[in-house]
């Protein structure tokens, strides 16, 4: 029978000012004394011979049966292992309560709060084998608990909460201590007894502000768009399908940031100072929603409506050289300069946001350990115990189940390598399929180029606006049909990894979209500008981009409502299958990137095009979600989409945004604006608006002389542009190298931990062999290596750098130091 343990914590009191905060040295004394207490308890347990299993009659060297594949140790070795601190810490709950009772006594005397955050990790008690009670007297533990409650009542509120949070006890016991530490009359005793009215009022205000802050934070968290819908999608269909909707949400944020400066500095200002109407006002017929022309032409939606004058208060005199002379005291607003700089600043904000999002996503998805070793964490630590509603718990259950399927599928995929013949066959099929896909892309590109030339040479008729929908219809049909052909050819490849299959599909769809957009950019800036001399070609390009966006949206709705729905009915009714079509991630993501590219291309010619894109994304989210829930099923082969968000943002940055920036720079620096409309009608290029403004500032005087200097050295000088580009690339490169370095260091640390575990096994085996040779009468001598091992473990836990466990010179370990 185990003897009752006497738990005594001998902590020397410090003399001096009782109101001073304890120093780090004193804190370390407290924690070292607690650690010494645990070691003494461990030695007593070892001395009294803690029996893990009852001994059978026989010699003292009898070994216990172990599971198959595990070594069998003698009873003496098991006693030594049981006396190790890692297996005895936290067994006695009375030791923990006694420790914190003594600490609260000291704190009440000194009226200061301990720095529990600075506690040495090795000195913190653990709760391993928590329910093994070594103290047979429960009354002594209850007495210590009551004493601890009384001492907690003597502490201030903040210090009491801090102490309770740091106790290594269960939540139920912490809750019991917190409830019983309140005085019966609701008054808490401070240093001098009860609180005064001012103190109670101050505490009430602090608690009210704290509750208000928590309420606002929870409200902001609950106000996030589609929060529950995204959880539901991720729970039923996995992270692969969820990545599409998260990418759609990201695009919504980008367009909102792009629209805000355009509304504030362009659309709102021009609407406040409308120009004189240049022709008859057209009535709304409804066809404008498809074509973008008609009554929409002479509105703030298109480039041609914006004036080339300096907007201010009503004119005080007549026009002078196309400029309205401002009244004295009025603030002029140069619309050409505002148009150019607002579009530039909006794109700069988008670029910064895009680069930040890409770097943040890269750090989140490519960190080491994102998919390795998290099976146990997913099983034991994924459930949120704050969930109380039945519907929310069902969503969380589905999410955890789907996450486990993805992790297991990713783990099993690495266990199935393919043979040499299979690889050769797959390479041949890949080459043939890629040739067919590239040929299809080339054919679609030639078809778009030929049809656009035919539209230019076609004579104008009375139904010209309706005929202009022909080119968007042809492009949308090709963009809808070619991905289905790519998907059919992809079934011949039979990729082992579903992730690789999605990446290949994304590459093929991306090549198709970028080739078609390249032909269209040549059509707009190369052919249409030449054929529309004397007309407002900027309005035509803006209307053309609006038509492309509307027709692409209609085809997306048609594909979701009819394509997936019809295939579901055919599969269920005619083919008698229970399988539904899977959600095509590659095609839908490339459709989003295609629509966003059209929006960026049209910002210069239609400032309200981001608002159209926002409405399009909102409708598209709900339509795609409804179609997904009704007509689609989860992927048959689950896969973990840990890098998909980074891939999507990368594709949005380099092919899409970079190509758009090249297109707009060419339009601003090289193409001559229309002479009949727009804010740049009297200039040779749009860029000259800034040059004219700088020259005007030079004529003003020396007060604004620094602005021309900045324009000359930062805008006109290409060295600054190359410097900024080099710095941006350097930052991206450094981020990549930092992440790679962290991955390498973590891999080395994991390997070192594995080697240390093998070293411990080696030492235990050596300990067992020494005992077998020395006999049963030398148990105390066999305890010495265990104590040495414990001391080394303590040294390793207290050291800052990596620590290696090495063996004695007579029995070296097979594993050397790592890295």
Can you describe this structure?
- This protein is an all-alpha fold and 819 residues long.
- It has helices at 24-47, 75-82, 85-88, 93-110, 138-153, 157-166, 171-180, 197-222, 227-272, 288-291, 335-365, 375-381, 390-413, 420-457, 464-467, 470-490, 498-531, 537-574, 585-602, 609-631, 644-669, 688-700, 706-716, 718-774, 779-798; strands at 189-190, 193-194, 310-311, 319-320, 323-324, 333-334.
- The strands form three sheets. It has a two-stranded antiparallel sheet with strand order 1-2. A two-stranded antiparallel ribbon has the order 3-6. Strands 4-5 form a two-stranded antiparallel sheet.
- Helix 9 (227-272) crosses helix 13 (390-413).
Q: Notable features of this structure?
A:
single chain, 819 residues, two-stranded antiparallel ribbon, 25 helices, membrane, Transmembrane channel-like protein
């Amino acid at each position: 029978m185990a003897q009752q343990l006497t738990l005594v914590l001998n902590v020397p009191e410090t003399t001096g000012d009782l109101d001073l905060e304890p120093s780090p040295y004193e804190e370390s004394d407290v924690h070292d004394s607690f650690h010494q207490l645990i070691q003494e308890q461990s030695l007593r347990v070892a001395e009294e011979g803690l029996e893990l299993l009852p001994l059978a009659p026989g010699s003292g060297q009898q070994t216990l049966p172990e599971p198959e594949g595990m070594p069998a140790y003698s009873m003496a070795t098991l006693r030594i292992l049981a006396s190790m601190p890692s297996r005895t810490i936290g067994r006695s709950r009375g030791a923990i309560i006694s420790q914190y009772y003594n600490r609260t006594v000291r704190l009440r005397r000194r009226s200061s709060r301990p720095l529990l955050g600075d506690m040495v990790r090795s000195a913190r008690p653990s709760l391993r084998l928590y329910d093994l009670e070594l103290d047979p007297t429960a009354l002594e533990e209850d007495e210590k608990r009551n004493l601890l409650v009384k001492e907690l009542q003597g502490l201030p509120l903040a210090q009491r909460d801090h102490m309770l949070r740091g106790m290594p006890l269960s939540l139920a016991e912490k809750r019991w201590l917190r409830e019983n530490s309140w005085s019966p009359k609701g008054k808490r005793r401070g240093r001098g007894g009860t609180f005064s009215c001012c103190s109670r009022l101050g505490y009430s205000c602090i608690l009210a502000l704290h509750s208000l802050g928590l309420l606002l934070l929870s409200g902001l968290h609950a106000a996030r768009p589609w929060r529950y819908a995204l959880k539901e999608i991720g729970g039923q269909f996995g992270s692969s399908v969820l990545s599409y909707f998260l990418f759609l949400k990201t695009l919504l944020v980008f367009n909102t940031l792009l629209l805000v400066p355009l509304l504030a500095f362009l659309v709102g200002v021009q609407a406040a100072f409308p120009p004189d109407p240049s022709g008859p006002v057209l009535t709304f017929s409804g066809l404008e929603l498809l074509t973008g022309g008609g009554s929409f032409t002479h509105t703030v939606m298109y480039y041609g409506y914006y004036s080339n004058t300096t907007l201010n208060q009503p004119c005080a005199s007549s026009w002078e050289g196309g400029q309205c002379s401002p009244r004295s005291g009025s603030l002029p607003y140069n619309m050409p300069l505002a148009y150019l700089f607002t579009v530039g600043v909006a794109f700069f904000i988008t670029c910064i946001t895009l680069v930040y999002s890409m770097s943040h996503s890269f750090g989140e998805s490519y960190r080491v350990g994102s998919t390795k070793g998290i099976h146990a964490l997913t099983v034991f630590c994924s459930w949120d115990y704050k969930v109380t509603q039945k519907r929310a718990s069902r969503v969380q259950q589905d999410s955890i189940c789907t996450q486990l399927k993805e992790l297991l599928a990713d783990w099993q995929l690495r266990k199935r390598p393919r043979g040499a013949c299979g690889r050769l066959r797959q390479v041949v099929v890949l080459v043939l399929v890629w040739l067919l896909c590239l040929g299809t892309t080339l054919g679609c590109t030639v078809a778009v180029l030929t049809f656009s030339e035919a539209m230019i040479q076609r004579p104008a008729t009375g139904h010209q606006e309706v005929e202009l929908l022909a080119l968007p219809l042809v492009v949308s049909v090709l963009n809808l049909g070619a991905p289905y052909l790519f998907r059919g050819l992809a079934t011949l490849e039979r990729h082992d990894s579903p992730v690789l299959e999605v990446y290949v599909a994304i590459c093929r769809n991306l090549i198709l979209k970028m080739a078609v957009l390249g032909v269209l950019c040549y059509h707009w800036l190369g052919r249409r500008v030449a054929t529309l001399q004397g007309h407002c070609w900027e309005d035509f390009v803006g209307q053309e981009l609006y038509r492309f966006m509307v027709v692409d949206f209609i085809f997306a709705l048609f594909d979701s409502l009819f394509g997936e729905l019809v295939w579901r009915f055919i599969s269920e009714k005619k083919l008698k299958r229970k399988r539904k079509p899977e959600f095509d991630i590659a095609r839908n993501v490339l459709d989003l990137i295609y629509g966003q590219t059209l929006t960026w291309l049209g910002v210069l010619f239609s400032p309200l095009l981001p608002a159209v894109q926002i409405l399009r994304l909102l409708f598209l989210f709900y339509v795609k979600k409804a179609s997904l829930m009704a007509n689609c099923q989860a992927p048959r082969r689950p896969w973990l989409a840990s890098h998909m968000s980074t891939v999507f943002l990368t594709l949005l940055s380099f092919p899409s945004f970079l190509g758009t920036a090249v297109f707009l720079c060419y339009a601003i620096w090289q193409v001559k604006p229309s002479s009949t409309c727009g804010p740049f009608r009297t200039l040779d290029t749009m860029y000259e608006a800034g040059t004219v403004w700088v020259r005007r500032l030079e004529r003003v005087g020396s007060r604004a002389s620094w602005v021309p200097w900045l324009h000359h050295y930062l805008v006109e000088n290409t060295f600054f542009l190359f410097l900024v580009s080099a710095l941006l690339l350097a930052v991206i490169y450094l981020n990549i190298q930092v992440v790679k370095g962290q991955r390498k260091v973590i891999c080395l640390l994991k390997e070192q931990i594995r080697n240390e575990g093998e070293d411990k096994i080696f030492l235990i085996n050596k300990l067992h062999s020494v005992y077998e040779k020395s006999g049963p009468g030398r148990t105390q001598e066999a305890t010495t290596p265990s104590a040495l091992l414990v001391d080394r473990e303590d040294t390793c836990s207290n050291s800052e750098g990596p620590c290696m466990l090495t063996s004695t010179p007579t029995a070296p370990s097979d594993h050397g130091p790592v890295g």
